Amino acid sequence: MTLPKGRLNFWGYILLPLSWPLALIYGGVIRLRHLLYNKGILPTRNFDLPIICVGNLSTGGTGKTPTVLYLLDLLGDQKVATLSRGYKRKTKGFLIANNDTGPADLGDEPHLFHQQFPEAIVSVGEDRCAAVDQLMHLPDPPEVIILDDGFQHRRLRPGFSIILTDYSRLFSRDYLLPTGQLRDIRKAAKRAQMIVVTKCPTDLATADKEKLTNELCKYGPKIVLFSYIHYQKPLSLTSGSVADLSGPVHILLLHGIARPKSLREYVRQLDPDFKEMAYEDHHDYTTADIQNIKNAFRQLPEGRRMVLTTEKDSVKLRQFDHLTAALPIYILPIKLDFLFQGEGIFNEQILAFTHNYKH
User: Fold this and answer.
1) CA distances (Å), origin 211, targets 40, 52, 58, 179
2) Which residues, 6 or more positions from 304, have their beta carbon under 8 angstroms from its beta carbon?
3) What single string gives the DSSP state of each residue in 134-152?
C-alpha cells in the first residue's frame, strides 16, 4: 500500500508565489495567539466537570460527526451534553435542542445529534465558555460535555482533546492556509491527549500503521489510533425500511459534504456507473434543487433505482417530504470503527477520563 503524501491546495499550488507569503503571515498570527494563551496573557477557563473536545487542525471534513455520535453512544450511561457552534444556523446565542428546533435553528450536525440521541442535551452557542456556564446551571445539568469542533477555542480548556486527521490528508504533511488546508500549526497537537486517523483503508498494513504513528507522535500525543467509516445498510427516508441491495441498482448519489472521497468509493461498489449531484458543504436545499434532483433521477437507466444521500443531508431534505414522496430516497448511515483493536483503547481512555475526572 502506498502511504498518502503531502500536497498543496489547488490554488495554493497555482498561486504558490503569493500563497506562501500569506501562509507565513497567517502562521505568525496563529503562533502569536498561542503564545499569548500559553503565557497567560490571554485568559483560559477550566470547568469543574469533564469536557471532551473533538477537533482537528485542518478545514473540511475529518469525521467529527461520526466521532461525536460514537462518544454519545459510549457515554450513554451518563448525562451528556454536546456543545457546537452551530455552523450556518439561522439563530444566534445559546440554544438547546427540543421538539420544535430544526437544522435552521441548530445547524446540520447538532440536529442530527438530537435526532439520534434525544436523551442527550444538544446545545449550540458561539461563546463556548458562556454556553458551558449555562449548561452547568440547568436544573438537571450534564455530567460530561462533548465539545464539537472546539480545539481552536483556546479560551475554554477541555480536560481531554481528540485531534482527528484524514488519512488522505494528514496534518503532518499539510500546509497552512492558503497554501494548504491547515487552520492551525502542527505543534498545536501537543495540547491533545489523542490523535485519531480517520477514513483509513480497511486493509491498512501494520507496518504502515507504525510509520504513521511515529510520524504523528512527533507533534504531540503518544496515543494514535486508526479508524474507518463503516457504511451501514441504506434506510428509506420516509419509512425507515432497509434497502434491497441483493441485485443491480442504479444510484443517484446526493450530498453536500466537504470530503466525499470515501463515500464515492463505497457507492461505486454498489453501482460502478452511479450518477452524482454534489453540493457545497452544509448546503441548504431549495425547491429548485428538488426539481433538479427529480430530473436527474428520471435520467437514470431503467431498472431498480434509488437516490442515496447522507445522514447530514437527510435532515434538510425532510422539509421537502411533500415534494419527494414519489422518489425512493435512502439514507446511508455511517458508524465509526477502529482498526488494530483501537476501540478498546479509545473506550478505556474516554471512560477513565470521565469516571476519574478531578478538576
Assistant:
1) 36, 27, 21, 25
2) 244, 247, 248, 249, 250
3) HHHTSSS--SEEEEET-TT
Closest CA to 315 of 259, 229, 242, 256: 256
Q: pLDDT per residue over 79-106, tens digit each? A: 999 999 998 899 999 999 999 999 999 9
Give the CA dihedral 315, 181, 146, 236, nearest 10 degrees.
20
pLDDT value of position 246: 87
Please determine, for residue 55, whether its predicted confidence score (pLDDT) is greater than 60: yes
| Cα 350 to Cα 172: distance, rounded to the nearest angstrom | 24
Q: How many CB atoms lie within 10 A of CB 129?
A: 16
Residues in the chain: 359
Backbone dihedral angles phi then psi of residue 292, each to the nearest 5 degrees:
-65, -40
The residue behind cell 457515554 is 75
Residue type, 210: E
DSSP 163: E
Cβ neighbours around 127 below 10 Å, total: 15
CA atoms of 273 and 111, how far apart (whole Å) = 32
Q: Is the pLDDT of residue 114 over 80?
A: yes
Question: Do 172 and 7 form a contact (C-beta atoms < 8 A)?
Answer: no
pLDDT digits (tens, 9 = 90+) for 146-201: 999 999 999 999 999 999 999 999 999 999 998 889 999 999 999 999 999 999 99
Pairing assessment for the beta strands 80-84 and 144-148 based on DSSP bridges: parallel
Answer yes or no: are the C-beta atoms of 255 and 309 closer than 8 Å.
yes
Q: Look at the alpha carbons of 180, 155, 139, 78 in this order and tell me if their dihedral is positive or negative.
A: positive
R_g of the chain computed on alpha carbons: 21
Higher pLDDT pick, 11 / 61: 61
Measured between alpha carbons, how far is 222 from 172 in angstroms, rounded to an integer? 14
Query: How many other CB atoms are found less than 10 A from the CB of residue 29?
Result: 9
CA distance to 15, 35, 47, 50, 229, per residue, from 359 (Å) = 48, 24, 7, 8, 34
